[in-house]
Predict the 3D structure of the following.
Amino acid sequence: MTELPAVHPGGLSAGHPVGLSIVVPVYRGAATVGALVAALSELKPEGGIEVVLVNDGSPDNSGDVCRALQESAAIPVIYIEHARNFGEHNAVMTGLRHARGAYVITMDDDLQNPPEEVVKLYDHARLGGWDVVYTRYAKKEHEGWRNIGSRFANGVADLLLDKPKGLYLSSFRCMSALAVQEVTKYRGPYPYVDGLLMQVTQRLDSIEVKHLPRAEGRSNYTLKRLVLLWLNLATNFSVLPLRLAILAGVAMGFLGLLGAVATIVEAIMGETPSGWASSMTIMLLIAGVQFLILGVLGEYVGRAFLSANGKPQGVVREVRGPGVRQVAGEGASTAAAEQSPRVRAVS
């Protein structure tokens, strides 16, 4: 019979070097990531803490700042550099693969999530036995359009994902090692972390935390990035858009049938059927719906093609830090003294 790993009080497995890993995707974060790591270094969570910094192709000097932090920080810091910008969720997936904690918290590098809330979130997850704990905010200190976009994305997630109604999906979340292990099995080029978590577990909860104004600069999330995020959610984790396309086709067919009946009735009554304007209106309406359906189908087919063609989820140029783990399928499970640059693809 297989012997199960020892578990410490509070749900910490003896098989993990630290109790808590903090995964931080870094993009244009040179001005804030140092203050974030310094604040995290002051925390004393059960089982210890480490920070995993993933530089997602930042065009500024974030890489230099992160390397300096890796060498000088008071707590263990793992630094990972992507060869180019792959996106926040791709960077998070890379960070999760290198996190060694019994629990893993993901948070942004902009200091809008107060580091002092980390232990509160961590303790809620481990003491309650939750696989995933999300945070919610009494007041979000984002720009107005960003708040509207977030509400829209969560509304779409309510329709498409198997999640508790009204659960707010935030990037400041805590996951158990079990959830992390299952989520990181996904190798497709378009990850959506929350969608993957919903497929793994239903032991979900949320707590309220503070949300601060952005310390430096502006949000890296543009309207284009939000739209791409919605597409990831809609086309990677649900077939609802395809079903809506079927309903649109049925609705247009029904309207066409009503139009045909109306034309026949007009002809029987001796009236001249409606002419060019109404015909063009109907044709344009039908053509618009057809192109919409083709676009939805094309998005699914295109993503399937890129996945089959081996588009990488991320390409890691460099990894620095204590006990850095290799990505599954690369051979050795641990790189003991990994300080030299390397390049690899995660697909």
